Every structure is written in C-alpha cells, then in structure tokens.
From TrEMBL:
Protein name: Uncharacterized protein
Highest taxon of the lineage: Bacteria
Amino acid sequence: MSGGEPTRLVDEVTAGPSGAMTREGVILTGTLTVATTELPAKRAQVTLREAGSSEWHTLAGSPFPVPPEGIGALHTIVVAAIGAGSRPSG
C-alpha cells in the first residue's frame, strides 16, 4: 500500500454450489459483488454482498495475506474460489 487511497478491486461472480461463507456465519448465494481492499502489512480484507443488497459481509477467513504477485492475484484467487464454491486458502 503506497500513500493515498488503498487499492480496492471489485468484481461480480455467481457463487458456486456451496455459496460463500461470511465471518458472521451467513452463507451468501447467487450473484455476489466481491471487493478486495488492501490493508497495511501485506494483508487484504475481502467483503461481499448479494445482488440487490446494500449490506456488505466479510468473507470467512479474511483478512488474507497478499501473495508476492500482489493484490490482483489474491482477488483473482478469491473470485475463482467463490465461483467454484470453495474457500480461498490463506
């Protein structure tokens, strides 16, 4: 993270068969908006919300370590894992 606003990447994905588990214990399904936001110390917070909702939830396991490839790589991994219905490792 370099001065100014933290990097924030946002995409939509259709959750896989098991949905996406939130830190709050809610399973989100259907079309989800996924946001990965850079934090200090090479970590990133992943939040998501269901289509049509204004309520953001934190993905279970978040914050995640940012890999050497950067926050874009982490975001790609998380979006793919949600689409497959699995939990990102981190």
